[in-house]
Amino acid sequence: MAGLSFNPTRVRTPPLQLHQPISNFASFPNFTDFPHRTPRGLAKNQRLLLRFQLNSVSQSSVSAEKELELNEEEKGQEDDDPTAELSYLDPETDPESISEWELDFCSRPILDIRGKKVWELVVCDNSLSLQYTKYFPNNVINSITLKEAIVSVSDELGVPLPEKIRYFRSQMQTIITKACKELGIKPVPSKRCISLLLWLEERYETVYTRHPGFQKGSKPLLALDNPFPMELPENLFGEKWAFVQLPYSAVCEEISGLDTRYVFGSGLDLDLLGIEIDDNTLIPGLAVASSRAKPLAAWMNGLEVCSIEADTGRACLILSVGISTRYVYATYKKTPVMTSEAEAWESAKKSCGGLHFLAIQEDLDSDDCVGFWLLLDLPPPPV
Length: 383
What we know:
Blueprint: H1 64-80, E1 87-89, E2 100-111, E3 117-124, E4 130-136, H2 143-157, E5 164-167, H3 173-182, E6 186-189, H4 194-206, E7 230-231, E8 240-247, H5 248-256, H6 258-261, E9 264-266, H7 270-273, E10 282-289, H8 293-301, E11 305-311, E12 316-321, E13 325-331, H9 336-351, E14 355-361, E15 371-376
Parallel strand pairs: 2-5, 5-6, 7-13, 9-15, 10-14
Antiparallel strand pairs: 1-4, 2-3, 3-4, 8-10, 11-12, 12-13, 14-15
Organism: Rhodamnia argentea
Protein name: Protein TAB2 homolog, chloroplastic
InterPro entries: Tab2-like, Tab2-like_C, Tab2-like_N
């Protein structure tokens, strides 16, 4: 495993360490060396514009050349028409390989001819090889409509029904859960719908605002929850923890090795995110040590870990999982030194576009991780 330490020149071998430990807390250096970036880490012209292809899925008639010409014409028309719906599958992707979808079913800041808000179904996979959108009037919003729409995605694109569908709106849990279970699909409430969340922001800027029914200033009908943090369940307790750093190149190495090195953990499609960070830039993270590291990592693996936040007001770390569950993950003594270190860690996250990680080990001096999760802070979508 690539080691995690405070030394920016060490990329591979040093273990997670406590530096001048204070109640199992690691002191943290200043982050003046981080490049200035927008909080999202994604410049406007980088936000997945090349990934959202407006294409037809009909690929089985006429000649290949005529198909290409027709698709290019349709693409051009759809690019100019914000009312167009998408139905796209990357022709180089094996349909059988797409086993998990990300889904949003919610109203948009668009009014129909009745003056009622239009609803939209948006479906993708985490690589955006699958992209599907469809508008609905507000008087047909129920689990039956959603169930039929999910089947339509499968039929139109020629892909099997997924094993899992992730969604991030707690208000739609009943409808989505019922539709999924009737189709034998596992519904997964999770804010780790990174591709979907970024796509929704992209659609807001390039589609919804150009729609003839767009209502400027319209607030989301189903806002995301941000509840008060709860006490951490006993099975999630660690024994020691430390703020640490890992060079970006080593983070990429850890993610690429998840399938071969670890039983537990989760990465992100860094290419898709479009975050441009130098290989030597230090990514902030949290290292947690426990003598029962494997059971701890196993429990964490089933929680859809989303992000970690240093709350300097409460002098604690907050772990966000699932859709709207927040735990007080750890506490520390509220002193000027500790507050400064927590603020520096949060500043480091912002400088890296919200990128950070969680590593679980048997011991903070160990060279190996039992689990590794790459995390990303994202603001709620504008819709």
